[in-house]
């Protein structure tokens, strides 16, 4: 199908031979027109637009519109989209009782996996994934309700009352208010912090066929409802090799800080290079980027802005992260393996400065990635050639044998 691409389906039809590719290192699982990555150049485009331009000129809801519809909205289209999303920000009041079933110290991703899957029990008019109208309204509901659910999970964990959404605010201001507002006083959003959070959302909105997106596609390919498919994506994102890396990265920085901070960076890097240690430099490396992740560059810029706004220019973890990056980028171990900072390397420091607790970092990622998941699900179901995902296996177990009666087994 292209100069560097073999369509193996024809070979399979002719010969019955299939490929063995654990981890999908060299297998495209689908065609997609949503997100393009050039891993060697460190380039990321949503629907053809460079991530840098989107982060500079657009807000998150415009980015959502783009990912879902293929084009950026004009003023009228944006106003209509914002109004539609705002009309769905509340969740059914029964969700509170669902939430109350969890321990207060439950991990927010455990809670979110349950709550998102639970949405399918409330919206029977948007559970038929084959129906484009159902998918469209499910997409709006998911984008609109994720901030409410994440903020509810946070408020529940700290024992504060939930703050209901306010639809005269922007998407991101509304989220910040639901997170940090209280019934006792009016929450006044800080523009720099809102813009930083909005940028985090834009940078995390989609990233083609990563593990969680592939999970959503595979799960959705069975015809399950969109809420269930997105809940599967949330579950997959939780892992430390994927969305959980931002939390793991911040924890790593805090551990190095406790060990002695910048002075111990060299020692830590030596530990990472020792394969027997099992320690990885979290927030570094990527399956596709073999160059600097463009999102990490933008996140580092945002980090400077947020820390300056908060008067935290001397933040020890930021200094530590910059020192780690400097040493790693000069070290042959990282250079030869083309390991560069990924988006998670700086996003944790930004979120921490904004006041987001570390355990909520991955839930914020899930909030932002929801639009990518749903856009990818739509694209798959809308493709007349789509089939249920069903990978083959290379069987290496026992060949056929007879069952020995239990009394005679050794
Ligand atoms: N620290 C130290 N060594 C690393 C790291 C790292 N962060 N990442 C990769 N390597 C080494 C591996 O040990 C391996 O070395 P070898 O060739 O000597 O065996 C080589 O680099 C290739 O690594 P793989 O694990 O084979 O690469 P893969 O593409 O499978 O993994 C991954 C990519 C999971 C992102 C990996 O780089 C990693 O674990 N990074 C840390 C976790 C992280 O930051 N994840 C976030 C990814 S971005 C995102 O999800 C938003």
UniProtKB/TrEMBL annotation:
GO molecular function annotation: citrate synthase activity
Acyltransferase keyword on record: yes
Superkingdom of this protein's organism: Bacteria
CDD domains from the UniProt entry: EcCS_like
Catalytic reaction list: oxaloacetate + acetyl-CoA + H2O = citrate + CoA + H(+)
Pathway: Carbohydrate metabolism; tricarboxylic acid cycle; isocitrate from oxaloacetate: step 1/2
One Pfam family from the record: Citrate_synt
Keyword flag rRNA-binding: no
Annotated active site: 286, 344
Keyword vocabulary terms for this entry: Acyltransferase, Transferase, Tricarboxylic acid cycle
An annotated GO BP: tricarboxylic acid cycle
GO cellular component, as recorded: cytoplasm
Family label: Belongs to the citrate synthase family.
Protein name, entry field: Citrate synthase
Lineage: Bacteria, Pseudomonadati, Pseudomonadota, Betaproteobacteria, Burkholderiales
């Amino acid at each position: 199908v292209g100069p560097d691409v073999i369509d193996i389906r024809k070979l399979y039809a002719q010969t019955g031979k299939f490929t063995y590719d654990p981890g999908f290192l060299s297998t495209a699982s689908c065609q997609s027109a949503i997100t393009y990555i050039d891993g060697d150049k460190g380039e990321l485009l949503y629907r053809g637009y460079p991530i840098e331009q989107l982060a500079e000129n657009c807000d998150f809801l415009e980015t959502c519109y783009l990912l879902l519809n293929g084009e950026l909205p004009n003023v009228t289209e944006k106003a209509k989209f914002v109004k539609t999303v705002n009309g769905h920000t509340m969740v059914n009041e029964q969700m509170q009782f669902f939430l109350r079933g969890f321990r207060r110290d439950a991990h927010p991703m455990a809670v979110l996996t349950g709550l998102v899957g639970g949405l399918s029990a409330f919206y029977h008019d948007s559970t038929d994934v084959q129906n484009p109208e159902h998918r469209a309204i499910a997409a709006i509901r998911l984008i609109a309700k994720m901030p409410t659910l994440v903020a509810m999970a946070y408020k529940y964990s700290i024992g504060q009352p939930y703050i209901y959404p306010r639809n005269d605010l922007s998407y991101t201001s509304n989220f910040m208010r639901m997170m940090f507002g209280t019934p006792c006083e009016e929450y006044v959003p800080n523009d720099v912090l809102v813009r930083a959070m909005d940028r985090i959302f834009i940078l995390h909105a989609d990233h083609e066929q990563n593990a969680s997106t592939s999970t959503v596609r595979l799960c959705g390919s069975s015809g399950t409802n969109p809420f269930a498919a997105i809940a599967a994506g949330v579950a997959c994102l939780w892992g430390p090799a994927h969305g959980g890396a931002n939390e793991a990265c911040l924890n790593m920085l805090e551990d190095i800080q406790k060990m002695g901070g910048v002075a111990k960076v060299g020692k830590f890097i030596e530990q990472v290079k020792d394969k027997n240690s099992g320690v990885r430099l979290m927030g570094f490396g990527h399956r596709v980027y073999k160059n600097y992740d463009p999102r990490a560059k933008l996140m580092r810029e945002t980090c400077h802005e947020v820390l300056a706004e908060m008067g935290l220019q001397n933040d020890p973890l930021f200094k530590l992260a910059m020192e780690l990056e400097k040493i790693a980028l000069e070290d042959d171990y990282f250079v030869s393996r083309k390991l560069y900072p990924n988006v998670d390397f700086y996003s944790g420091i930004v979120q921490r400065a904004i006041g987001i607790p570390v355990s909520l970092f991955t839930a914020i990622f899930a909030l932002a990635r929801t639009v990518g998941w749903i856009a990818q699900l739509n694209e798959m179901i809308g493709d007349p050639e789509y089939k249920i995902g069903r990978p083959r296996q290379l069987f290496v177990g026992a060949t056929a044998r007879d069952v020995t009666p239990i009394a005679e087994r050794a």
